[in-house]
Amino acid sequence: MAGLIDELVNTMSQENDIYKELIPIADEKTRVIIKNDLDALQKITEQEQLTIEKINALEKKREEVIINIGTVLSRNPKDLNMKELIKIMGRQPEEQKKLSKIHDELSDTLKRLVTINDRNKELIKQSLEMIEFNMNLIQSTRMAPGVNNYTRSAGESSIREGSTGMFDTKQ
């Protein structure tokens, strides 16, 4: 059983290292989104995808180890989460400590990554809203030609009554 726990701890440690690799990538993604650099965003997304493939492989390995632990303990692997495993390992304090430590580290890393990704999601959402606003603005200027042109009589209003205005009411 100790060998399975060590394998689980090792797999989770590798996952944590890879998630830590994603943090600077996500930070760079924030800067790229702010700069609106689509080429760099594409490269970062490709880099993230390669890293996620590594995580998926480790996740599959972790699930296999959990299945093996469930078999040894005569428990359903679907019922074995980390907190449950940590409780079960109460009679083996060294393994319990290892599991608890890597669980906490991985949890902290994931929380940090989620925070950065939420920020990036909000920035992308704001960027899309700005694009939509600009598209509506362009559309409204096409629908009311001459409205934004200045002439000698710039002080006089040339806006037609009943014109469509700046915002799309379909929203």
CATH architecture: Up-down Bundle
- Taking all Cα atoms into account, the compactness measure Rg is 27 Å
Domain count: the total is 1
Contiguous low-pLDDT stretches (5 residues minimum) are 160-167
**Number of separate helices:** 4
Query: What percent strand?
Result: under 5%
CATH superfamily: FlgN-like
**Overall 3D shape:** elongated
Helix fraction by DSSP (H/I, runs of at least 4): over 70%
Total beta strands:
0
Sheet having the most strands: none
Could you tell me how far the N terminus lies from the C terminus, measured between alpha carbons in angstroms?
A: 59 Å
By CATH reckoning, the class would read Mainly Alpha
Structural class: mainly alpha
CATH topology: Methane Monooxygenase Hydroxylase, Chain G, domain 1
Mean pLDDT: 85
Task: Characterise this structure.
This protein has 171 residues and is an all-alpha fold. The chain has one domain: FlgN-like (Methane Monooxygenase Hydroxylase, Chain G, domain 1, Up-down Bundle). The protein is built from four helices and no strands. The chain has helices at 2-35, 38-73, 82-88, 93-143. The protein is elongated and about 90 Å long. Mean pLDDT is 85; it is low at 160-167.
Quick synopsis:
It contains 4 helices and no strands. The protein is an all-alpha fold and about 170 residues long. It has one domain: FlgN-like (Methane Monooxygenase Hydroxylase, Chain G, domain 1), CATH 1.20.58.300.
Itemize the secondary structure elements and their pairings:
Layout: H1 2-35, H2 38-73, H3 82-88, H4 93-143
Helix pairs in contact: 1-2, 1-4, 3-4
